[in-house]
Amino acid sequence: MGGGGGKGGGGGGEQTVGYKYKMGLHMVFCQGPVDAVQQLTMGDRTVWGDASRAVLPANYGLGRQSVNLPDLFGGEAREGGIVGDFDVLGGDAAQGRNDYLQSLLGAAIPAFRGVVSVIARRIYFAANNPYIKPIALRLRRYGAGWTGTVWIPGSVQVVKGGNAVGMNPAHILVQCLTDPGWGMGYPLSSIGASFADAAGSLAFEGFGLNLLWTRQQPIETFIGTVLDHIGAILYTNLETGQFEVKLLRQDMVLQTLDEASIVSVEQFDRAQWGELANEVTVVYTDWDSGGSASLTVSNTASINLQGGVINARRDYPGVSDPDLAARLALRDLRALGYPLARITFNVPESVFYQTPRPGDVYKVVWPRLSIASITVRVVSIARAEAGSALLRIEALEDVFSLGETALASPPPPPPPPPLPQAVAPALVVAAEVPYYELARTLTRADLAYLDDTDAYLGALASAGPASGQLNWRVYTGASSSALSDVSAGEYAPLLTLSAALPATEADATVAVALLSHPERLDVGDTAYLVDVSGTPRELVGIVAFDAAGGTATLSRGLLDTVPVAHAAGAWLIGNTGWGVADSAEHAPGETVFVAAQPRTSSSAGALAYASNANPMTLVGRQAMPYPPGRVRINGLTDPAQISPADDLVIAWAHRDRLQQTAYLVRQDETDIGPEPGMTYTLRILDASNTVLHTASSLTGNSYTLSAATASEITGLLTIEIFSVRAGWASYTTQRRTVLRSVTGYGFVYGQSYGGI
Description:
6-stranded mixed sheet, elongated
């Protein structure tokens, strides 16, 4: 078990895998001052605040903001997070110089009034990524930044159902017209009484806008955008010289104009059905994400009449309320989807009860054009000729006279899926790294430096069933309260045995249940069979794997492990390429706690300990000789019974950890080595584990116990063989159980029924 996270990872000495970055920043976002700074995001992740519509108090979010989100971008295993203090400056007229900037630039710096800025006081902002992620602020401005007092302060912020909708569009228009700095600079006295009426109507309608204006856009264009949103006309009252605004809504007809009052009709036409839209898509701004959202309304009757869909798109970036967007979509569908008439006529000024203004509504009757009655709205008014008493009026059929249509507002967009939370791994395994993996990952120089007093630790982890789990980090330490972050790893594939697996050197096919990432398990990989205590018992090879059929064929007892029996429910965890090695050198006899910390893209979970939270005692596995292979008893692989009349002949094959680094040697292969200085110890135990016979310092690959010598060694016997080199016993011991008994019902009734 070794290497870095993911297949192909290396082990060995300490190495630099990335860098942490800290930086002081002064970021200017826009003109100030503002009422509130609601949220700061980096790379579409929230650093502080939220995207709620709650009504915020004045100066909300201004001042010092402390952030401690080290795992915001995945932690050190990915792109770090954000930790540090931010100074949020609203840019009001009383703002003083910032102490952090003064400490770096000196006292002679401006206070940066009049702009909204954020100062990062040398924050930790990234790991493994030397680029600053895009930074954005969510601001609110409605009462701040006015020259003098706020115009009609009670309705400057539109609130609906207790939630903030946006700034009142009438107030936006007033500030654009009167602000001496960035607006058109007209005096407040140039604002007519219609603006106050419009402000009240828009507040009642819940019509608030959230718009961004840049100096690259002429202020007149921006005013036109506001008017387009709210459906209004801005004009100059020729009698008073004041600006007036007219909301295009359902209005009262002022009077009827007929042949007795109209001198002439210059033009009358109506749009053709083929020129009309029968479907309108409104693109607005999603409040939560700040991105675009859309909804579409259709006129089914017009679609059937026109033989297909004719779509028109309207963009309303200042709208962030889906209910309001639906109302605007209906408004535009009615205006764009009906063949409205356009008429131009001349009327003596004396006919009107009051001076006509743009947006006024009249009823026109003109039988000579088959106009029995049509309600029109004034678009423009001019003198027919210089000095003439005739007024030339251009008008458009009033869409509000076409009847009311109800449209249910679209359902609210589904909330964004919650960010995945880190869930404890299903299994965490700790094991010493065998010599084979060190030889394949260390450089020759590092391998030559290795001696028998070195021990290296590795770990594996498999994810639980929760989705969104990214990776994990291994922590080690001498106690559970003093753990150090070692490295990151990818989750290993995990299966469980659905049936018991006997101890045999032959390849075994066993039913398995798929638990986690079975697609990561490949033929040719190695895997550990792990008992319920979390202890790895045997390293096996994947000879075949049928995920659909739920079976795996395993080669047994690889490297320094031997075949042992496993109960149903034992874990099978992939090892090749998924292990994480602790690069620190340990010593045999040292106890180490091992834990895994699960990670997602946005969070880190609690530590999950290996070995059921017990410390692991290192034994110096990499220095231990390999146990012998190809064990035979009286020429048989797994004899159930032998006769006391026969000699007891035990044979085995040599193994050599130093030579076995090219490929994975199977149990039934013939001699390799042996490793220099290696001997064997053989023991025979009875059913109560009492040692009946011992032979040590064996240098060959067989041992014979004659029938005469072993006449009293009968019953159910366990034969153990292990290797010894320089005082180191092999990591595991070969064990075989055989019945040596007489014929008949005999010594072990039920095992020897009938004799041999």
